[in-house]
Amino acid sequence: MALAGGRTALVTGGNRGLGLETCRQLAHLGYAVVMTARDADDGAAAARAVGIDFMPLDVADLGSIAALAERLMAAGRPVDVLVNNAAVALDGFDAEVARTTVATNVFGPYHVTEALLPQVPDGGTIVMVSSGVGELSGLSGAVRGMLSDPRLTPQRLLGLMNAFAAAVADGTWAEAGWPNSAYRVSKAGLNALTRLLAAELAPRRIKVNAVCPGWVRTRMGGPSASRGILEGTKSIVWAAILPEDGPTGGFFRDGRRIAW
């Protein structure tokens, strides 16, 4: 199906769970939605079921990101709304889990955003799907200081994420103040990235916000989670359709600002 006219929203990791419901709701609101997913067959089938476009994307693969950006540019389509939803929550805690988690949950949104920025018009919207486990209050003073340092830049932040993975690999993570949860570190890193990009893109009036959908009954959240997918998706869609004068650089749940 060809891309529809009007405002376009692109959702990463859109083939199931919160991503799929976000695609469905944005399409219902009249957006021309582009669903992306790493599994091309599963993603294409999910997109057909919703009646939207699909483009393959592995957010941890720079080549895949570049191919998506080139395809969108060739089609001449803007990305009015970018929802960085794709993420992993892996079992265990070792060097490979740490590396894969930060690569997908922090480096992925950063590289996707950077690659697609030429397609995001001034006044556009970027949503980072985060988690309350990434609040700074849940981290050691040393890590809080690093992530809230006013001198922090996106590149320095990515360096910190690499340093975390390296510390897990050599067994010095606890000594450095890191928690024993790669997912927690990655979401704290994503929250920090949100603040940095919001400030960087303010001159273009591009809103960048992080949202916590809560503990949702998805494949990642599990069957015991307290929220259904519809309830969890509300925060994401709220941030995606903010008016041009809406907030930027914030962390929200259910449309209300929460502590970093």
Quick overview of this protein structure:
The chain has 260 residues and is an alpha/beta fold.
For the structure shown, list the relevant keywords.
single chain, 260 residues, 8 strands, Rossmann fold, disordered N terminus, alpha/beta, eight-stranded mixed sheet
Just name the CATH architecture.
3-Layer(aba) Sandwich
Q: Span between N and C termini?
A: 40 Å
Mean pLDDT: 93
Could you list the spans in which at least 5 consecutive residues all have pLDDT below 50?
A: 1-5
CATH fold annotation = Rossmann fold
Residues in β-strands, percent: 5-15%
CATH class: Alpha Beta
Let me know the number of strands.
8
CATH evolutionary superfamily: NAD(P)-binding Rossmann-like Domain
What does the model show?
The protein is an alpha/beta fold and 260 residues long. The protein has a single domain (8-257), classed as Rossmann fold. The protein is 45% helix and 13% strand. It contains eight helices and eight strands; from the N terminus they run βαβαβαβαβαααβαββ. The chain has helices at 17-28, 40-50, 62-75, 95-116, 141-148, 154-170, 182-201, 229-240, and strands at residues 8-11, 32-37, 53-56, 81-84, 125-129, 207-211, 251-253, 256-257. Strands 3-2-1-4-5-6-7-8 form an eight-stranded mixed β-sheet, with helices on both faces. The relative contact order is 0.14. Residues 1-5 have low confidence and may be disordered.
